[in-house]
Design brief:
The chain has 415 residues and is an alpha/beta fold. It is built from 13 helices and 20 strands. The longest helix is centred in the last third of the chain and has 29 residues, at 337-365. The chain is globular, with a radius of gyration of 22 Å. Bound molecules: flavin-adenine dinucleotide.
């Protein structure tokens, strides 16, 4: 089959789905190719923040209501519990969601079901979808991009003026068009497991981040899921895992057996399935995300928050912005690097650059566990500081405080 279309998307995870959903809203024909068959798993912590809800609500307000209603698959979460390196706990409730039908500001959903939910929103008269598509070749000539791929042995060719790489951490589109060497400092590696029967889960389903002193910068997490399940994992900056020869699996199982905040709660818990690992491309600095006839989105664009490890929201968000840029490109018949730099790269970093920079600073601060301990100790005793930290989750200007030494000075000296 040979198809001539307006845009080709490689990958139908949150980044590709976000791009496709918004192209369909604009009435732009496109082809989306994924190598997997949905529903498919993706190794992840499964926690979705307000940004995920924002992009979906903007696409269709009924979708977020649907997600929150489906408590069999999605666990609404109302806050976050930090365990400082010294073991002290800080429990921070989020401000309630102000949107009708959204029972909490965030939720936890297995990617197996969440990504399938997104995938099911894709079929439309504007989207031609291929699953089990194996890319054979990407060519860029005569102001067109041509992708050759096979599906169940049949050969296909698609041609369009623009390609969008939404193919995750090991993006072949990124490799083909940019081929940059991303430093190990800008990557993290993490393990995920599903456990049943962990006790002492927060009554309001707070997600838990345990900053263990032996894995800084990084953390051990427990995120509540429906049906007595939880997503449990551990993650750390890749270069440190390598240079310190850290066996993350051993560290994770050691914490489950021995950490005083964690071990008693796993006494009767059972591991369901395997412990699996995957990489996280961190947004520690601005990367090339577009050029002549291409854009990359989501993990292919390295947009994971360096502190929280969150990437689903930015994947959807970048997909939405890429669709806006495609609409403009088609209107102006411009598909060159300068155009996409102005209409995608610059807008993307204007919208999420500050957030990523703050995440980067916080990740660096985790190298000073004593500072982390002091902040948590003080916040535990000060409702005002606790409230400030809670508001930081939704207020970016307030979060900017975390980059300023004066914030820590005030905490240290009770100013
Ligand atoms: C252990 C771990 C825990 C995490 N926890 C969280 C969390 O709790 N919350 C959060 O927000 N983020 C978390 N993240 C990050 C999050 O998983 C990613 O940022 C997110 O999945 C990015 O979405 P994406 O669509 O860019 O890529 P992906 O979700 O990886 O989707 C890429 C898609 O492209 C397809 N594909 C890949 N290669 C090809 C190819 N050659 N041809 C065709 N198709 C292809 C894949 O099949 C896949 O469907 C975590 C990551 C890890 C590894």
């Amino acid at each position: 089959m040979t198809i001539d279309t307006k845009a080709i998307i490689i990958g139908a995870g949150p980044a590709g789905a976000g791009t496709s959903i918004y192209l369909t809203k604009k009435g732009i024909d496109h082809v989306i190719i994924d190598k997997a068959t949905f529903p498919r798993d993706k190794v992840c912590g499964d926690a979705c923040s307000g940004k995920t809800a924002f992009v979906l609500r903007k696409a269709n307000p009924e979708w977020t209501k649907e997600l929150y209603l489906n408590e069999e698959h999605n666990k609404p979460t109302h806050g976050i519990l930090f365990a400082a390196p010294n073991g002290k706990l800080l429990d921070i409730p989020f401000a309630p969601s102000k949107y009708e039908g959204e029972t909490a500001p965030g939720f936890v959903a297995k990617r197996l079901t969440f990504d399938h939910y997104l995938f099911e929103k894709l079929p439309s008269e504007h989207a031609t979808i291929f699953q089990q598509g194996i890319i054979q070749d990407i060519r860029h000539e005569n102001n067109k991009v041509t992708v050759s791929f096979t599906q169940n042995g049949a050969e296909h060719t698609v041609t369009a003026p623009i390609i969008i790489g939404a193919d995750g951490d090991k993006s072949i589109v990124r490799k083909h068009f940019i081929n940059d060497n991303i430093s190990e400092k800008a990557k993290a590696v993490a393990l995920r497991a599903y456990y049943k029967g962990i006790t002492g889960m927060h009554p309001n389903n707070h997600i838990e981040l345990h900053f263990l002193p032996e894995i800084q910068p990084g953390y051990f997490w427990i995120f509540p899921l429906p049906n007595g399940m939880a997503n449990v994992g551990i993650g750390m900056q890749s270069n440190l895992v390598r240079s310190k020869k850290i066996n993350l699996r051993e560290r994770m199982l050691y914490a489950i057996k021995n950490n005083p905040n964690i071990a008693p709660r796993f006494k009767d818990a059972t591991l369901e399935g395997k412990i699996q690992g995957w990489g996280l491309p961190l947004g520690v600095d601005q990367k090339t995300v577009s050029g002549d006839h291409f854009m990359v989105v989501g993990d292919a664009a390295c947009l994971v928050d360096p502190f929280s490890g969150e990437g689903i929201g930015n994947a959807l968000f970048s997909g939405m912005l890429a669709a806006d840029a495609i609409e403009k490109a088609l209107e102006e018949n411009r598909f060159d690097a300068t155009f996409f730099k102005e209409h995608y790269h610059n807008i993307l970093y204007r919208r999420i650059g500050d957030e990523l920079r703050i995440g980067s600073t916080m990740q660096k601060l985790c190298r000073f566990p004593w500072l982390f301990n002091i902040v948590v100790n003080k916040a535990e005793k000060s409702p005002e500081l606790s409230k400030t930290i809670s508001c930081m989750f939704t207020d970016l200007d307030l979060r900017e405080q975390l980059r300023k030494p004066s914030f820590y000075f005030k905490i240290l000296f009770n100013k």
